[in-house]
Amino acid sequence: MTDISDAVVADWVTLDDLVADPYPVFERLRRETPVAWIPFLNRYFVSRFADCFFVETHNELFIPQTNSLVRESIGVSMISKGDPEHARERSAIAAAVKARTVNEVWQPVFQANADRFVAELKQHGPGVDLDSQFAVPFSAANLGALLGLINSDWADISRWSKQFIAGSGNLAGDPAVWLSNGRANDEVNDAIDELVPYYRAHPDASMLSSLLSAPVDLPIDVIRANMKLAISGGFNEPEHVITSGLWALDTHAETRARVRADETLFAALFTEIIRWRSPINLLNREAAVDIDIDGVHIAAGSLVGLLIGSANRDERQYDHPEAFDISRKRRPHLGFGVGIHLCAGSWAAKVEVAGVAWPTLYRELPGLHIVEPETIPFSGFAFRGLPVVPIAWNS
Ligand code: HEM
């Protein structure tokens, strides 16, 4: 790595501050040092919308991290590849996540899961935690069904997802994390191996079935890695958007009244939550060549962290970016990424959250509200959401 100019070193950025409240940190970075060297993470942070967009859409200049923990955690999936290999694998899952399949096949499954877990909420009664008792099982059960993991239950999916994410973020090299990550890998491999003969004989709309019937035969380790990518990438974000959406309404009474009067506004709420309280704040890339961004020289091989949660609040892109406003003028956001790695599950996520979870919760639990929403802290940096969300309703 070549010299890093003192002017771009942002040694005031700490993980504690990012976890406590990333938005003041993001705002200062965008204003003072839009391309900043972050010593404790050994990488640059890029915080403005236009720069994040540029990096994500120039795959010849910025590639997936070559020595990434993600590869160690789940194997080499499409997220760790460029085209044409990436495109081949991406097209192999397309049938399972395209809008028509989601609407016709998965939406009824999502609804059945919502009905099941809302019934369990009612049994618990007011005071129950919406996150652990609804958002977690609902998102995990939906994902398991879409992936075709019919031999596993929602608790397996959520546990595996957490263990894969923990491995991907195991910068400290904690051996206990690798141990449980290895166990999750073994269990998912076993679950897939058991299902391969079944789906060869009974192809269906699921992701595993799509991967197995791709026009170009994919090696089993590629199939496994892409299933693990979806397990780690398709669970905690819907979970967090469900609870963040309720929290946003309960802290904005006027918007809450509008949405309660018109359920079509759940779609706008979904888009605004992904922008305003992005469930993913950070994407990682590696510079493939020496390049300048915003006048800062980045040497080939340097790691570059794209702060998409900051890009989504860039004052150059949005009026009043700090405001929660479901009627804001439509401008693209980066909450699902952009370019070749744009989220493959965005439509499934929108249908399960805005089309199923929110309408079902409000319909089935009259007077639904979060208990003291102002006191509940968000947590996490790369992935961020509300860990505990006590709710009440008129029972
Ligand atoms: C609100 C929910 C979700 C959010 C905010 C989200 C966000 C993202 C983002 C930002 C990326 C780009 C990563 C990068 O460029 O490095 C991504 C990729 C991906 N997501 Fe999602 N995601 C969500 C739900 C889902 C679901 C439900 C699934 C599976 C059904 C899924 C599957 C994937 C896959 C397979 C990729 C990799 C795409 C590729 O490399 O071409 N996501 N997601």
Structure, explained:
This protein is α+β, with helices and mostly antiparallel strands and 395 residues long. The strands form three sheets. It has a five-stranded mixed beta sheet with strand order 1-2-7-4-3, sandwiched between helices. It is built from 16 helices and nine strands. The radius of gyration is 21 Å and the shape is globular. Helix 7 runs antiparallel to helix 12 (236-250). 53% of the residues lie in helices and 8% in strands. Strand 5 and strand 6 form a beta hairpin. The mean pLDDT is 96. The protein has a single domain (6-392), classed as Orthogonal Bundle (Cytochrome p450), CATH 1.10.630.
* Oligomer type: single chain
CATH-defined topology:
Cytochrome p450
The ligands bound in this entry are: protoporphyrin IX containing FE
Number of helices: 16
Mean pLDDT metric: 96
Low-confidence stretches: none
Count the strands? 9
Protein structure class: alpha+beta
CATH superfamily: Cytochrome P450
What percent of the residues sit in helical stretches (DSSP H or I)? 40-55%
Strand order of the largest sheet: 1-2-7-4-3
| Alpha-carbon distance between the two ends | 62 Å
* Percent in strands: 5-15%
Assign the CATH class: Mainly Alpha
List SSEs in N-to-C order: HHEEHEHHHHHHHHHHHEEEEHHEE
| Major sheet | 5 strands, mixed
CATH architectural grouping: Orthogonal Bundle
Shape label: globular
- Report the C-alpha radius of gyration, rounded: 21 Å
